[in-house]
Automatic annotation (TrEMBL):
<feature type="transmembrane region" description="Helical">
    <location>
        <begin position="121"/>
        <end position="141"/>
    </location>
</feature>
<keyword id="KW-1133">Transmembrane helix</keyword>
<dbReference type="InterPro" id="IPR005226">
    <property type="entry name" value="UPF0014_fam"/>
</dbReference>
<protein>
    <submittedName>
        <fullName>Putative ABC transport system permease protein</fullName>
    </submittedName>
</protein>
<feature type="transmembrane region" description="Helical">
    <location>
        <begin position="191"/>
        <end position="212"/>
    </location>
</feature>
<dbReference type="Pfam" id="PF03649">
    <property type="entry name" value="UPF0014"/>
</dbReference>
<keyword id="KW-0472">Membrane</keyword>
<feature type="transmembrane region" description="Helical">
    <location>
        <begin position="91"/>
        <end position="115"/>
    </location>
</feature>
<feature type="transmembrane region" description="Helical">
    <location>
        <begin position="9"/>
        <end position="30"/>
    </location>
</feature>
<keyword id="KW-0812">Transmembrane</keyword>
<comment type="similarity">
    <text>Belongs to the UPF0014 family.</text>
</comment>
<feature type="transmembrane region" description="Helical">
    <location>
        <begin position="218"/>
        <end position="240"/>
    </location>
</feature>
<dbReference type="GO" id="GO:0005886">
    <property type="term" value="C:plasma membrane"/>
</dbReference>
<feature type="transmembrane region" description="Helical">
    <location>
        <begin position="50"/>
        <end position="79"/>
    </location>
</feature>
Amino acid sequence: MSTSLAHPGLALAVVCTVMALAAALVYRVAALDHPLVVPRAALRGAAQLAAVSVVLAAALTHLWSAAAVLALMFAAASVTSARRADAGRSAAWLSVALAAGVGAVLPLLLVSGVVPLEGVAVIPIGGIVLGGAMTATSLAAKRSLDAITQRYGEVEAALSLGLSLRDSRMEVIRTAASDALLPGLDQTRTVGLVTLPGAFVGVLLASGSAVQAGAVQILVLVGLLLAQTCAVAVTMELVARAVVRRGVPV
């Protein structure tokens, strides 16, 4: 039995078009937003994936080109996190948090030999880890800065009691920032029971081995937990020390 999935072709285009139009109809009926939001997003996603597919086809053949692709992905993730944090130019420092998350995981995977030093393995694993670190960093930064804005009276009270600026701000951001880790924790706790994540499904379809798919998925999930934990910890420090802050014009 063939395990091939979603061959490029007319059938795939028709199904995706029908789903996008159906979502647009629901948007219209429920008055969620402009009905063309989903079709536009689908077209943009298709165009981006087509371009990425062409680039990756060449990049996967050489380690240096794979490293270049990862560097571009890191730059894009840094820009995305900065925009979501709404902290002006100071948000550029969030790239340090991303570097901490990725740097804690990828070298360990490569040096141990668990992930082979080949483009075909480095780019997918690196992309997943980077994406998870980006999401956690963005959420932690935004929620921390929101907490400081909403509870600034508590920060001032802590300062008046003699706490340092860092400790005063940390009192209000610790809980808010730690919420950024909940999606990753929930995904790990419920994997196999509620969801079958992409890495598991991808390896299962490619190899047909559920055991190998499970091994790859737990590697990815634990790596994500480490990357996100490191990224959030660094983000908290950057916000607590006012390195990343609101009110700075872009």
